Amino acid sequence: PAVTVIVPAYNAADTLGRCLDSVVGEDLGGMEIIVVDDGSTDETSAVARKYPQISLVWQERCGVAVARWLGIRESRGEYIGFVDADDFIAPDMMRSMYEAAAGSGADIAVCGSNKVWNGVVFPHNLYGASEPESGIDAVTQIILRKGEQSLWNKIFRRSLFREEDLERTRGIRHGEDQLLAALTIRFARKVVYLPQVFYYYVQTPGSICHNPTFESARDSFNAKRFLYRFFLSSE
């Protein structure tokens, strides 16, 4: 497959259908879709089984970082994209991203995103006419908080992912996407940016992002501290 889309899901039965409707509606032929149920106690797996074109993988509750890595190990696509179970994407996202990456020889493609609050859409991160750059320059933007720190508005060449980065994100439940994104982007020879907005990041009032705990603040701090020390000590 040209692209594998990985959807980690935990107790996401209420939103997973909307998410998967958007993913299966993509106009990229032969796309692989993998849902990783991270030990849900609701009907998450039952929702995923309604889609015959989707591969469902189940694991004991280990956290989203491990769920993503299980999806990566199961994947076969040239590029990998991630969609959170409570979000959704535009129908031409994966085709446009793949064509931009493969057509330019880039290892990563990045698109714009919107935030969705109570059904109302707000621009979140737009790239306009941003020029291609190296992975190290892209990581610099992430560390300086000028770039989108998440995984979900990007596709990555599958060969960029390293097993040792699994251990670096294991056990982190908040900020692990920023950590994995930075560690993976650093290997890219070329990153391209698309001006279109393809990803819709749904804001959930009860989520940990809007109700931070000591543990989530600690994890986020530890992820940022690791990145700071890692890149400070690297060449």
Plain-language structure description:
By secondary structure, this protein is of the alpha/beta class. The protein is built from 8 helices and 9 strands. Strands 1, 2, 3, 4, 5, 6, 7, 8 and 9 form a 9-stranded mixed beta sheet that branches. The radius of gyration is 17 Å and the shape is globular. The termini are far apart. The mean pLDDT is 91.
Summarize the topology:
Layout: E1 3-9, H1 13-24, E2 32-38, H2 44-49, E3 54-59, H3 64-74, E4 79-82, E5 88-89, H4 93-104, E6 108-117, E7 120-125, H5 135-143, E8 154-157, H6 163-169, H7 176-185, E9 191-202, H8 214-233
Parallel strand pairs: 1-2, 1-4, 2-3, 6-9
Antiparallel strand pairs: 4-8, 5-9, 6-7, 6-8
- Helix count from the secondary structure assignment: 8
What's the overall geometry? globular
Q: SSE order, as H and E?
A: EHEHEHEEHEEHEHHEH
Fraction of residues in helix: 25-40%
**Sheet having the most strands:** 9 strands, mixed
Strand content: 15-25%
Mean pLDDT: 91
Poorly predicted tracts of residues: none
Radius of gyration: 17 Å
Spatial separation of the terminal alpha carbons: 35 Å
Class computed from helices, strands and strand pairing: alpha/beta
Count of distinct strands: 9
Q: Which short descriptors sum up this protein?
A:
235 residues; alpha/beta; nine-stranded mixed sheet; 9 strands; 25% strand
